[in-house]
Amino acid sequence: MLNKNDILEIRKDFKFLESTNNYIYFDNGATTQKPKKVIDGVDNYYYNENGNPHRGAHHFAIKSTEVYEGAREKVAKFINSSSNEIIFLRNATEALNLIAYSWALNNLKEGDEILLSIMEHHSNLVNWQFVADKTKAKLVYLYLDDKMQITEEELNKKLSAKTKLFTITAASNVVGTMPDVKEFIKMAKKKNSGIITVIDGAQYVPHHTVDVKDLGCDFLAFSGHKMFSEMGIGVLYGKEELLNSMEPFMYGGEMIEYVYEDHSTFLKSPQRFEAGTVNVSGAKSLGDAIDYIEGIGSENIFKYEEELMKYAYDKMIELPYLEVYTTPVEKRSPVISFNFKEAHPHDVASILDNYNIAIRSGHHCAQPLHRYLGINFSCRASFSIYNTFDEVDYFLNHLEDVRRLMGIGS
Ligand SMILES: Cc1ncc(COP(=O)(O)O)c(C=O)c1O
């Protein structure tokens, strides 16, 4: 496992930590800080290489095309797909909407079922409500057991001949649950080989090696900004044949083949789904972020974050004034959601902020999950590779201060 010195070296890559005087940033599930290499890469692109890609014959049009398509190849290799299967979008939300608009609206009808879990982020839930409303397909939910897991029995009970789309997050942003998505996809395809499977990888891809061929999913969505890149760049992976059978999501420049007065023909994936001027610097920053992750090793990153989360989790579940909502099952994502039994999460987050600790408070875009847990809001600490055990100790000590300041009994 990475040791203390390794992490201290890694921390030097993140100027944010230095410029904020080592502010304790435990809101990595919302977005990570960016390594210098990624920020410098963006600067370098704009200082030396900027042009509008895929159009024009001059040096900078060509250079920006190389930068953009190079990033696509890097992402494709990162998740073991072909580059035609990688569509650059703004974020995971846009990727999940693309599937809703371009596949689901055209393929679902009354009597069909969309199977999803209660722990989905709104990005992978409200879009399916929209589809259900338009197509009259029915939403069917998978619920968590008392260990915050979705069991195979639950999946088998809810899968039916009517299920046409099955979607689930590979890692919950609230309860940390990491379902065995490979097995779940296998079970869904066994029930009905025509079921389309959609994996929300927003909280999973930043921490794990992903092989889409091995997973067997039809679609995978994730965001760059949660894995050290700029904001404004996200990825939709889709099986090539499926993507090319779908209607475009948006219409305009660069996604067309021929345009006549009354109709047009469209390019294949990925251009088919990337209308208009694209985000070259964002794609480049994601490519550089992937280099950064690979330089440390995805598995090394996760092992370290897992140890950090375990250290914090084991101490937090012993605190009598806290309720912890994260799954007790060891295989989990590095997020710990909790509440003080008698304090509002926003008060907790504000007090911790006074001690230079950033945590998230609110519903974390997962209102149905919070309602299912019988709460409205929670606090969430989420970890990344630059966080330390000392920071966790500091955080734990200041939970005591929150308790004292809020007048809560120990
Ligand atoms: C599980 C999950 N899915 C989807 C998203 C949406 O990501 P974005 O806001 O980058 O589109 C998030 C963001 O927090 C998330 O945690």
TrEMBL record:
<keyword id="KW-0808">Transferase</keyword>
<keyword id="KW-0663">Pyridoxal phosphate</keyword>
<dbReference type="InterPro" id="IPR000192">
    <property type="entry name" value="Aminotrans_V_dom"/>
</dbReference>
<comment type="function">
    <text>Catalyzes the removal of elemental sulfur and selenium atoms from L-cysteine, L-cystine, L-selenocysteine, and L-selenocystine to produce L-alanine.</text>
</comment>
<comment type="similarity">
    <text>Belongs to the class-V pyridoxal-phosphate-dependent aminotransferase family. Csd subfamily.</text>
</comment>
<dbReference type="InterPro" id="IPR010970">
    <property type="entry name" value="Cys_dSase_SufS"/>
</dbReference>
<dbReference type="InterPro" id="IPR015422">
    <property type="entry name" value="PyrdxlP-dep_Trfase_small"/>
</dbReference>
<dbReference type="Pfam" id="PF00266">
    <property type="entry name" value="Aminotran_5"/>
</dbReference>
<dbReference type="GO" id="GO:0031071">
    <property type="term" value="F:cysteine desulfurase activity"/>
</dbReference>
<dbReference type="InterPro" id="IPR020578">
    <property type="entry name" value="Aminotrans_V_PyrdxlP_BS"/>
</dbReference>
<protein>
    <recommendedName>
        <fullName>Cysteine desulfurase</fullName>
        <ecNumber>2.8.1.7</ecNumber>
    </recommendedName>
</protein>
<feature type="domain" description="Aminotransferase class V">
    <location>
        <begin position="24"/>
        <end position="395"/>
    </location>
</feature>
<dbReference type="InterPro" id="IPR015424">
    <property type="entry name" value="PyrdxlP-dep_Trfase"/>
</dbReference>
<dbReference type="GO" id="GO:0006534">
    <property type="term" value="P:cysteine metabolic process"/>
</dbReference>
<dbReference type="InterPro" id="IPR015421">
    <property type="entry name" value="PyrdxlP-dep_Trfase_major"/>
</dbReference>
<dbReference type="GO" id="GO:0030170">
    <property type="term" value="F:pyridoxal phosphate binding"/>
</dbReference>
